[in-house]
Amino acid sequence: MKEVAEAAGVSVTTVSDALNGKGRLPQTTRDHVRTIANRLGYQPSIVARSLASGKTRNLALTVSTADASTFAFGAVDYFVQLMSSATIKALEHGYSLILSHSDADRDASPLPLDGAIVVDPVLDDPALAEFRRQKIPVVTAGRDPASENASFSVDNDHAAGTERMLDHLARAGAQRIALVSGPPVHSYIVDALQAYEGWCVRRKVAPTVSFAGYSLTEAAGYAAASDLLSGPDRPDAIYATLDRLALGVSMAAKTQGLAVPDDLLIAGLSDSRAGRQASPSLTALALDPSEIGKRAVEMLAALVENRPVAEPHVTVATKVIPRASTRRRLGSRGKRLH
């Protein structure tokens, strides 16, 4: 800063005010100082800023699961996209993003933090409770099921998205749509279940739900779908609350000699590379996790810096992406979807 001050012909205090947007300086002076600083390659010291502000510049991100021992979130495109986007946005705001454990037997983070993002909190989430106990600002990606109005959140409208997907399956010719679901401990699953049951009531059809347990893997989807498809009144379409579950449904259909989509339509929640590359490719409800991660960091940075938050609950749009798993050929059991 002394070198910038000497080159610009001003005081170190003026340099500090110009670069930090403080003080009552003419705009021409601010522009002059910033031009000199850029020419000299000046970069502010993160350590110095932390010492001066009392902030660590560290943010945590944790993914909550009902059973962390059986779930590898790095294998799910949704979480990878969300974390990548959040990391980039955190760096743009001058923060480091730390991946934190969500286990009940661990501290929420071993490092001092300015704020935290909890992805898909569960009922009575231990990490969320610990962050709040420490009075650390928190934003949830997905609502907190225990206190939905007491927190800051970025989420999708899963109820509306589920209904759009069910309508899509019905237009494709499905008459008996079943749901393969994870346990109702996350708000997105609760929303999907309620929307599915309401949709069935309005259509005057009996709901059929098979729970896949806590692992949320292809194997869990395979087991849940096998139960549904082995009965005499098997469904002609299945919507799964995770893309990995839907891929397991597809495996179960092939094992039982069912053709997808001619005998069974399949769709899943959240778009993924695995779903796009599956045979047949998987129809998906896209959630835009990159936008969720970006908006969550922006909201958290505002909380940490004591800036006003315009929207405490942000909703990111969903989109049905039709693919081969719900596109029947002419002359097959269902109607062709145009």
Outline the biggest β-sheet.
6 strands, parallel
Strand/helix succession? HHHHEHEEHEEHEHEHEHEHEHEE
The helix/strand class is alpha/beta
What do the pLDDT scores average to? 88
Summarize, please.
This protein is of the alpha/beta class and 338 residues long. The chain has helices spanning 2-8, 12-20, 27-40, 46-53, 77-92, 126-133, 158-171, 187-203, 218-229, 243-255, 273-277, 289-304; strands at 58-63, 96-99, 115-119, 138-141, 152-156, 177-181, 209-211, 237-240, 265-269, 283-286, 313-316, 319-321.
Characterization of this structure:
- The chain has twelve helices and twelve strands.
- By secondary structure, the protein is of the alpha/beta class.
- β1, α5 and β2 form a beta-alpha-beta unit.
- The chain is elongated, with a radius of gyration of 25 Å.
